[in-house]
């Protein structure tokens, strides 16, 4: 199991190139506000963002899923960690995060900027190597 302190290089050259692309777009990353929601007795669960958003938009069809990455960059670090994440976009284009995070501080979110098939392929590759849906880009 990977810990917070372990480095996780991109699993392959294609993902490394994608990580470089993301790193060049860090100024577009924004903190998406958390919104505590529920539908009846259902409430979103930690670490299940894609599932949470899928349930939400199934019951709120005027909303959509935005695939992207939480950006984790420690001070004086030589890498940036991108962790797969989904947020909701409402009919007005406002985004909100319905998945509880255990992090003490909010994390910036960066749109994936690729189609869902490519996004989930990257997530799958990362999970196969690290048992975690993310990877590091070294700077």
Q: How would you summarize what this structure contains?
A:
The protein has helices spanning 13-23, 49-59, 116-130; strands at 30-31, 64-72, 79-89, 95-96, 108-111, 134-138. With 139 residues, it is of the alpha+beta class. The longest helix is centred in the last third of the chain and has 15 residues, at 116-130.
Secondary structure topology:
Elements: H1 13-23, E1 30-31, H2 49-59, E2 64-72, E3 79-89, E4 95-96, E5 108-111, H3 116-130, E6 134-138
Antiparallel strand pairs: 1-5, 2-3, 2-5, 3-4, 3-6
Primary descriptors:
alpha+beta; single chain; globular; 3 helices; 27% helix
Describe this structure in words.
- This protein is α+β, with helices and mostly antiparallel strands and about 140 residues long.
- The protein is about 25% helix and about 25% strand.
- The relative contact order is 0.27.
C-alpha Rg, in Å?
15 Å
What portion of residues is helical?
25-40%
| End-to-end CA span | 24 Å
Name the overall outline.
Answer: globular
Q: Largest sheet, described in full?
A: 6 strands, antiparallel
Task: Compute the average pLDDT.
Answer: 92
Helix vs. strand class:
alpha+beta
How much β-strand is present in the residues?
15-25%
Number of strands: 6
Question: Helix count, per DSSP?
Answer: 3
Low-confidence stretches: none
Order of SSEs: HEHEEEEHE
């Amino acid at each position: 199991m990977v810990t917070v302190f372990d480095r996780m290089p991109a699993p392959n050259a294609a993902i490394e190139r994608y990580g470089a692309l993301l790193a060049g777009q860090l100024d577009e990353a924004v903190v998406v506000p958390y919104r505590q929601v529920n539908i009846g007795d259902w409430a979103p669960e930690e670490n299940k963002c894609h599932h949470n958003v899928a349930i939400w938009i199934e019951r709120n069809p005027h909303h959509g899923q935005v695939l992207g990455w939480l950006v984790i960059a420690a001070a004086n670090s030589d890498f940036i960690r991108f962790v797969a994440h989904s947020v909701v976009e409402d009919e007005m284009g406002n985004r909100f995060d319905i998945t509880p995070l255990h992090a003490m501080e909010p994390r910036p979110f960066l749109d994936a900027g690729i189609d869902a098939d490519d996004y989930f392929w990257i997530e799958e590759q990362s999970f196969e190597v690290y048992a975690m849906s993310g990877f590091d880009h070294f700077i």
